[in-house]
Fold:
Amino acid sequence: MIRVPERIEDAVVNLLRLANTRLPKDVGWALEAAAAWETGEAAYLQLGGIMDNAKKAELKGRPMCQDTGVPAFYVTGKIIPSIEEHIKNGLRKATETIPLRPNTVHPLTRRNSGDNTGEGMPIIHYRPTDAEYTDITVIPKGAGSENMARLAMLNPADGVEGVKRFIVSAVLEAGGRPCPPTVVGVGIGGTADTCMNMAKEALLRPTDHVNGNKDERELEEELFTTLNSSGLGPMGLGGDSTVLRVHIKTAYCHTASLPVSVNMNCWAARRATVRIMKDGTTEYGQ
Amino acid sequence: MKITSPLDEKTARGLKTGQVVFLNGIVMTGRDEMHMRALSRPAEGLNGATLFHCGPIMLLKDGKWEVIAAGPTTSARMDSAAPEIIRKYRIRAMIGKGGMSDDVLKAMKEVGCVYLAAIGGAAVSLAEGLTAIGVHWEDLGMAEAMWKFKAENLGPLVVAMDADGKSIYKEIASKTDSFHS
Ligand code: SF4
Structure:
């Protein structure tokens, strides 16, 4: 394969196009697995419609959902100078050319910037490393699921049981609003702010990711089983497939705190990564 | 089953929860901003209409609007304004996702209106069944404007709340409640 150097803002356009038009393979597999164990007829219709739509989006090169969301970018590796400007310009271009829906507004006046940027937008997280390349990962997240995010500053005495109760309530109270079956990102520990960040970062993991920590893995599996036996089902219309996966991230916290956060991703669990090499060539992945 | 919009009261009242329908005819879109505005001034074309909770992605091509992606948005955000909108405009059907409150269900029963659940996120498939034939209140922006669509076999749509006061969401909630109370 011949690779030519790309301008960073063009790489950002391609990254957003990939994320919005093609569902990551692992999410597709998770949906197929859900359809295989689903016993509800109505639920099966919903899952079929979802998979059908994902295929059409990929074939037509159109965003799989009209809510192309608010993208969160995660930049790791070598931090290129002015990367923020490049990402912003790329997002503006992508909004026009893909097209993406212009979603960002001023919180009080509700004035729409028209190009998905604005004060504090887009969201960019940085993690510099010694690598010679730069990875930019994007998660475009719609409001349907983002609005269902929850944080609880539990008492340490609430323990693991309290943590489980909170997560289950957050998912079930959200009902059909975040377009289940969802991928559930959970943060446990840290501080109020880092706990919320962890829940979203957990959504960067592919659905077939295996949690290396045994306790966390068991908790993920238990929550997965509980939630899928709840009966909420696809779109909250009843069924066996409420969640595709539960991902837990933890961090040490204050001895007097037990923060727990939930950030769900809809079935359209979109994400994509571009690696920008030293020579400016790029490699895309999901 | 196929239905044609605008629906008359009898047809709307005849639809029962659990039925799956495909819709033909005229559909108006409306979200948060449109609901607020439609309460303070008359909304053209909304009387007796089918109201689709949707903020589509539209593309202006050779002077014509093309529907790129048009799935349902979370209907519960319209819970506070919806009862008045339903009564004021005699709305016969709403298309959305996630369901709506008891107050909305009450207004639906009174007026004769159904709630049709579209597959959330199935924006490309749903857009295939839609042609843009007009737009009102474009100043609200692409997502919030009131688009007038012609629907052809739009669906599948599940009758999730009906004019008898039945709601699939309420039934499901009564089951899932035992999991977290
Ligand atoms: S929750 Fe996800 S799939 Fe559903 S409408 Fe929003 S972005 Fe689309």
Q: What stands out?
A: The interface with chain A takes residues 18, 20, 33, 54-57, 59, 68-71, 73-74, 76, 97-99, 117, 119-128, 141-143, 156, 158, 160, 168-169, 171-173, 175-177, 179-180 of chain B (CB under 8 Å).
